[in-house]
């Protein structure tokens, strides 16, 4: 990495926002010789990472964004992905012409390993996890990182040219990229999401599109042929296209025909496996399975390894995760469903009557797309959190009479258990972010599971 040290030595960099990726990129750039200052608006008591950085000699400013944080001498601002661009230091940097990027931009430029980037409104974590397992089963070395697991900045210093870096990437991360170029890039789907951050659907789509922006003909782009937006994005891509589809054959990629998954690269398509043998349930998970198969095959995985992984993989934590059965009722944790589209797909995965638990951060969404899904799949609705009233209203719009509003997730589980009968499903699929009451969807899902297990006591 000596040539990289020459590039960063003495450069003045501000890292805005601590947390996992901020700490990782601050440490990495400090090791490369940059003059790093880290800043977080949270009070020092809420920044436990500050001491770790200060012990390395990195100045940390907590509790405010000082007016002199950004100045002509700053050469780059690396922002935490979740910090909106309207934040004062970012506006200052942009006004001064200082590049504003995310950790992904830096890590991508430093990585010696070929990268696989995976983005989409829904299904990123499941697809990324599947790709990692398919490559590993094919005896292809890989490391999974990004928006899942390790920060990219923690990985790039240790991963070599001989293995793949498989990265789950959010629109927040991609918006702050300029030259980032994964060797294989995938766009799973695009639904209205995070519009409180992006403000317009166009900005959201353009942020997702950035994953392909610097690809060339020698790279691979994997897209969902069943998505109109993905097809429109593909028209501007200069890399080799691979497609996946649940509904129709594709020129190159992975698709379903007559209940069988097929693979078509060159020549005649080959049967991979029956759809019925895929362990994950639900149409949306079938899409994830097809996407992961296309990505992995493009990266050199064997068809046998891909098929065997799909037969054995039952899902990731907090994504339509089976918790347990209590009194004949099955409980599922889908805490990662942070938008209405993800919740709708989860509800559609069940033929059994569903007691649905939804709620969380109120982003001003009307949730009207949930009405027909609730009408078709739910027997009762329990809502909590900031969005509880609007979600309860949607339950009533669906014609349901069993609609209940409670204060928190613990009360929601207790109420759902009282409504469910032998053979029913209780599904936490919130359709909202967790931040009104919980620090993350992981914490929310864990609290749900704890509450479910207490029902057995």
Topology summary:
Elements: H1 2-8, E1 12-16, H2 19-31, E2 35-40, H3 50-55, E3 60-62, E4 76-79, H4 88-95, E5 100-101, H5 103-110, E6 115-119, H6 124-137, E7 142-146, H7 152-155, E8 164-168, H8 171-175, E9 184-187, H9 195-198, H10 201-209, E10 220-224, H11 228-234, E11 240-245, E12 253-257, E13 260-264, E14 270-274, H12 283-298, H13 303-312, E15 321-326, E16 329-333, H14 340-348, E17 354-359, H15 370-377, E18 378-384, H16 388-397, E19 403-405, H17 409-419, E20 425-428, H18 441-454
Parallel strand pairs: 1-2, 1-4, 2-3, 4-5, 6-8, 6-9, 7-8, 9-10, 10-11, 11-12, 16-20, 17-18, 17-20, 18-19
Antiparallel strand pairs: 12-13, 13-14, 15-16
Helix pairs in contact: 6-12, 6-13, 12-13, 14-15, 17-18
Descriptive notes:
With 457 residues, the protein is α/β, with parallel strands linked by helices. It has 3 domains: 11-101, 3-Layer(aba) Sandwich (Rossmann fold); 105-312, UDP-N-acetylmuramoyl-L-alanine:D-glutamate ligase (3-Layer(aba) Sandwich); 321-454, Mur ligase, C-terminal domain (Protein-Tyrosine Phosphatase, Chain A). The protein has helices spanning 2-8, 19-31, 50-55, 88-95, 103-110, 124-137, 152-155, 171-175, 195-198, 201-209, 228-234, 283-298, 303-312, 340-348, 370-377, 388-397, 409-419, 441-454; strands spanning 12-16, 35-40, 60-62, 76-79, 100-101, 115-119, 142-146, 164-168, 184-187, 220-224, 240-245, 253-257, 260-264, 270-274, 321-326, 329-333, 354-359, 378-384, 403-405, 425-428. Strands 7-8-6-9-10-11-12-13-14 form a 9-stranded mixed beta sheet, sandwiched between helices. Helix 6 (124-137) crosses helix 12 (283-298) and helix 17 (409-419) crosses helix 18 (441-454). It is globular and about 65 Å long. Mean pLDDT is 93; it is low at 1-5.
């Amino acid at each position: 990495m000596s040539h990289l040290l020459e590039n960063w030595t003495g450069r003045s960099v501000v890292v805005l926002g601590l947390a996992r990726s901020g700490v990782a990129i601050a440490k990495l750039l400090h090791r490369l010789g940059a003059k790093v200052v880290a800043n977080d608006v949270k009070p020092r008591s809420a920044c436990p990472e500050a001491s770790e950085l200060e012990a390395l000699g990195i100045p940390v400013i907590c509790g405010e964004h000082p007016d002199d944080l950004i100045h002509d001498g700053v050469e780059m601002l690396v922002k935490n992905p979740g910090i909106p661009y309207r934040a004062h230091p970012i506006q200052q940097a942009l006004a001064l012409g200082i590049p504003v990027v995310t950790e992904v931009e830096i890590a991508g430029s430093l990585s010696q390993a070929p990268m696989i980037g995976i983005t989409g409104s829904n299904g990123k974590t499941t697809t990324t996890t599947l790709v990692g397992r398919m490559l590993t089963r094919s005896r292809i070395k890989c490391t999974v990182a990004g928006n899942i697991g390790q920060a990219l900045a923690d990985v790039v210093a240790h991963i070599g040219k001989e293995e793949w870096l498989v990265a789950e990437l959010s629109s927040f991360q991609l918006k702050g990229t300029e030259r980032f170029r994964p060797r294989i890039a995938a766009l799973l789907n695009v639904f209205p999401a995070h519009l409180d951050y992006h403000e317009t659907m166009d900005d959201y789509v353009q942020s997702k599109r950035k994953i392909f922006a610097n690809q060339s003909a020698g790279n691979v782009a994997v897209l969902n042929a069943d998505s109109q937006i993905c097809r429109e994005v593909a028209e501007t891509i200069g890399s080799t296209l691979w497609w996946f589809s649940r509904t129709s054959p594709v020129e190159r990629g992975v698709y379903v025909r007559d209940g069988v998954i097929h693979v078509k690269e060159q020549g005649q398509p080959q049967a991979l496996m029956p759809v019925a043998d895929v362990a994950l349930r639900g149409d949306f998970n079938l899409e994830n399975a097809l996407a992961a198969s296309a990505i992995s095959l493009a990266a050199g995985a064997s068809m046998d390894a891909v098929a065997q992984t799909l037969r054995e993989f039952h899902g990731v934590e907090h994504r339509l995760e089976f918790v347990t059965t209590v009194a004949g009722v099955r409980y599922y944790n889908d805490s990662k469903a942070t938008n209405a589209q993800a919740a709708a797909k989860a509800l559609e995965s069940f033929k059994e009557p569903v007691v649905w638990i939804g709620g969380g951060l109120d982003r001003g969404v009307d949730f009207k797309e949930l009405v027909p899904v609730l009408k078709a799949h739910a027997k009762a609705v329990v809502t909590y959190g900031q969005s509880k009233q609007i979600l309860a209203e949607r339950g009533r719009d669906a014609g349901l009479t069993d609609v209940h509003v409670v204060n928190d997730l613990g009360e929601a589980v207790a109420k759902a258990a009282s409504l469910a009968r032998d053979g029913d499903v209780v599904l936490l699929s919130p359709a909202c972010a967790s931040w009104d009451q919980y620090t993350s969807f992981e914490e929310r899902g864990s609290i749900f599971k704890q509450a479910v297990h207490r029902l057995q006591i």
